[in-house]
Amino acid sequence: MGTGDEVVEIESLERSLLSESITGEEGTEAEDESVLYTSSFQEMEENFVKYQTAQWVLFSLLLILAWGIGLFMLLYIPVRRYILRKDIRSRKLYLTPNSIVYKVTRPVPFPCFGVLKKEKHVLLPSVADVVIEQGYLQSLFGVYSLRIENVGVRRPPSDDVQIQGIANPSAFRKAVLTRLSNMRTQVFSRQVSAIEDTPNFRIHSPASWLSPPRSKLDAIPHSGDLALLQKLEEVGSSVKVKQALYVFFVFNSIYASALGL
């Protein structure tokens, strides 16, 4: 009986340790990266699979007419649908305070050979825009494509992060743009506070901007104004005397020349 009780106690201890380790890992992940918004793909699973299947069938028919390879593609449709369901069920797209994270785990074309894991982190300062696209075939099945454009560097659209099958793309786009706006507002407020904290920085009032600039004469003291006015009067009088003498000399020269004639 004692051994049975010991086995039960050991099993209970193992379960408690496992539960603590799992909760500890989840807690550390939550602490390392806080999630602001999470997108869902489960609601669009059927529509996404139907859209991808219709696209696959169209390509298969074209290849049947061309080389006959499309026949093998039609036979591959059940495996293709299995891969698509595994793909969309494993997708995770969420927004953190600093980046956009996209994770997916999809089987390889032959699932017996394993899976492919993909994890993409896009820093928010490098995001120019979040574009929502929908083609003609996508509109028939209600499927949307989400494309995250990069900023500052001219790259082809194929280099952008493209995601299909998101349930509510407009809400995710709004969350990303709102976070970008908040980040820019914080950066601007920090710059303004840094400027205000700098010493010997004076902010002039709007009245000082509208007032006309002071002339050079206004900057001279009152005693200097009188001396300057006296000098100006003396210069003006001397100029007038010189002008009168010059006129008199010219008149005499004209008169003398006239008498000589």
Protein architecture, described:
The chain has 261 residues and is an alpha+beta fold. The chain has a domain at 33-194: PH-domain like, CATH 2.30.29. It is 58% helix and 16% strand. It has helices at residues 2-32, 45-66, 70-75, 77-90, 136-141, 169-197, 206-210, 222-260; strands spanning 37-39, 92-95, 99-107, 115-123, 127-133, 145-150, 161-164. The strands form two sheets. It has a four-stranded antiparallel β-sheet with strand order 1-2-3-4. Strands 5-6-7 form a three-stranded antiparallel β-sheet, with helices on one face. Strand 3 and strand 4 form a beta hairpin. Helix 2 runs antiparallel to helix 4 (77-90). The longest helix is centred in the C-terminal third of the chain and has 39 residues, at 222-260. The protein is elongated. Residues 6-10, 17-31 and 215-222 have low confidence and may be disordered. Residues 86-184 form the DUF7642 domain. The chain crosses the membrane at residues 56-79.
